[in-house]
Specification:
Elements (H helix, E strand, L loop, with lengths): L2 H17 L2 E2 H9 L2 H5 L6 H15 L1 E6 L4 E7 L3 H19 L19 H9 L2 E8 L6 E14 L2 E8 L4 E6 L3 E10 L7 H4 L15 E7 L1 H9 L7 E5 L4 E7 L3 H8 L5 E5 L1 H16 L2
Antiparallel strand pairs: 1-3, 2-3, 4-5, 4-8, 5-6, 6-7, 9-11, 9-12, 10-11
Length: about 300
């Protein structure tokens, strides 16, 4: 069996068991409903499934166990790193695109600008080898173009965009550059001394890509309507999100987060489906923004 088939089978098993515990036969029955899985001959013996479980634990750090009383397999421990999860998810998307070729209404994609992903391989090479880069950058606000010479530090995803985090050689300040605004990228042969900047630490309390604006992380409590709250529960706004109350009237979450502009815009985007309970300063800011919006009408 090919490596591709094995990876597809691992992905299918993980996806099924993340839904609910299943017996060996239930797993096979679910796989048999997938035409692509039949074409790829993903149906296997129980002995092969046991080997798959060992491989999944080794590759994805997802431990699968079986309940002896029900004869059902379940995910016991899931510590899959985000890199592995995204690779697996992208593998599933690519496979879905391949299956849908020739069926125009099967997969419907959002219309959006390109993400500048053609720069990623070169930027990663420059980051890993401490190489200066140069490029023309188109500003969001006024469309003006400027030439930049930057010490690249990391790539960060935020709100369906990829950004380069780097130190601008002009003023030695850490800045963020959207990849889709980068043009004429040149990777220099000139090396620089690695910058002591911990991206994960610096952005830990940020909502998106805005950072270094002076806002300290604070506790924020938001009250959502039941319908919106269930959605937020399934797709958290921030890694610090904690459920603190759920009843038939509202769902409340707490966050430890910097109340930057992009976080405030996110709150405003939920309209009457959310209310800021704490802190009072953020509550007043959102109230003022909503009042200003109403006055525009």
């Amino acid at each position: 069996m090919s490596v591709r088939q094995s990876l597809k089978r691992y992905t299918k098993i993980i996806s099924l068991l993340r839904r609910r515990p299943m017996s060996y036969q239930e797993i096979q029955d679910e796989i048999s409903l997938d035409p692509d899985a039949i074409d790829e001959k993903l149906l296997t013996s129980q002995r092969t499934l046991q080997r798959d479980i060992i491989d999944i634990a080794s590759i994805y750090e997802i431990e699968i166990d079986s309940n002896k009383s029900t004869n059902k397999y379940y995910i016991k421990e899931d510590v899959e790193e985000i890199h592995s999860r995204r690779l697996r998810e992208n593998f599933e998307i690519v496979n879905a695109i391949r299956m849908s070729r020739g069926f125009g209404n099967t997969l419907i994609f959002e219309e959006r600008r390109h993400l500048g992903t053609e720069h990623m391989a070169g930027l990663i090479h420059a980051i890993q080898n401490n190489l200066f880069i140069e490029f023309n950058y188109i500003k969001f606000w006024d469309g003006s173009k400027s030439n930049r010479r930057v010490k690249p530090i990391a790539l960060k995803e935020a709100r369906n965009r990829w950004y380069l985090i780097g130190m601008d050689d002009k003023d030695d300040r850490i800045k963020n550059f959207s990849l889709d605004r980068i043009q004429e990228l040149i990777i220099s042969a000139e090396k620089f001394k690695s910058a002591s900047y911990n991206v994960a630490k610096e952005f830990k309390d940020s909502f998106g890509i805005i950072n270094g604006t002076g806002e300290k992380a604070i506790e924020v409590i938001l009250s959502f309507t039941l319908q919106q709250g269930r959605y937020i529960k399934s797709l958290p706004l921030h890694h610090s999100q904690e459920l603190i109350l759920e009843n038939e009237e509202e769902i409340r979450f707490s966050y430890f987060i910097s109340p930057t502009y992009d976080f405030k815009m996110e709150i405003l985007s939920y309209g009457d489906q959310v209310k800021v309970l704490q802190p009072e300063s953020l509550r007043e800011t959102i109230f003022e923004n909503l009042t200003a919006a109403l006055n525009r009408y």
